[in-house]
Amino acid sequence: MTALFDLPRHPQVPVAGSEKTFPVRRIFCVGRNYAAHAAEMGHEVDREAPFYFTKTPSATVLTGATIPYPPGTNDYHHEMELVVAIGRPAFRISKEDAMSVVYGYACGLDMTRRDRQQDGKDKRRPWDLGKDFEQSAVISPITEAKDFTVGTQKIEMSVNGTVKQVATLDELIWSIPEIINHLSGYYHLEPGDLIYTGTPSGVGAVVAGDHIHGTIDGLTAIDLTLGAAE
Ligand code: MN
For residue 116, how far is its CA from the centre of ligand 1 (angstroms)? Predict the structure, then answer.
């Protein structure tokens, strides 16, 4: 048996201070995980359970890239997020054990076609056109968990030098162990899985020529430049 064609290998995210890379297996994203962001989107915080959407691994873009303004939108938004990288299998893992499967952390941008996401909400259809599209999952190098503990660190993002999003990680509604515990009840989490943990308030549109710079104290910063539409 011979494959008709070769597929590209999964994207590889650099590990900070190492020659190693982290291959991306799947991308999970948590919705509405900061109260102020839920409010700005017109929603109450749902404290019963977190919810998720996914992105295709090939949507991964490494920090420093210049990407074209995407097709099919006139309202392309930034969402700055803490990303958790899973390094060990986890299925129905307890909150108490959940942190043992975390390999590390990174800065991420969950780039969003807000108009297409709103269509989905209005028509009660899936969010894929709004969330799961090419080059929509931007990530910085991963810092190993031994070098970073989630606490009260600042998460901040600017566009062309003007701060747009700022919060602290203790504002997360669902903590990292709560997310891993809950998500592992629905999926067999595996090494290579990434979890984008939700964005603070201050999301907004970007246009061609804009430069995004995001930081989380203790992690490698993230940068993205927007080129012209194709
Ligand atoms: Mn998001």
Answer: 14
